[in-house]
What does this fold into?
Amino acid sequence: MRKPHQIWALVSPAMHRKLKEYAVENKIASTRAKMIMYILYNFHPANLLEDYTFQSKSGKMVNIKVSDAELEYIKSLAQRYNVTISRLLRNMVYTYFRVMDKEEQRA
It folds into this structure.
């Protein structure tokens, strides 16, 4: 049996908290890694926003275990947005929550 690939991503402390809170509130997946995978497969922004609040010294690590197919999908997304995988994950999470916050404000 093949070992799954591991992807490491650093996110800001605020995004780290939001991942867990949002997943629990919406009964999606209770782990941050699963929430990130949910975002990658269900959120398709035209452009990624940059999380300028992020600092590597205070970043929170998220480890995601992925299959070969999931890794290829993530690599293709990173190539599409012309960023590294770690930056893709960080900015995808940031963009997702910015869009969600804007939609809540409109409602």
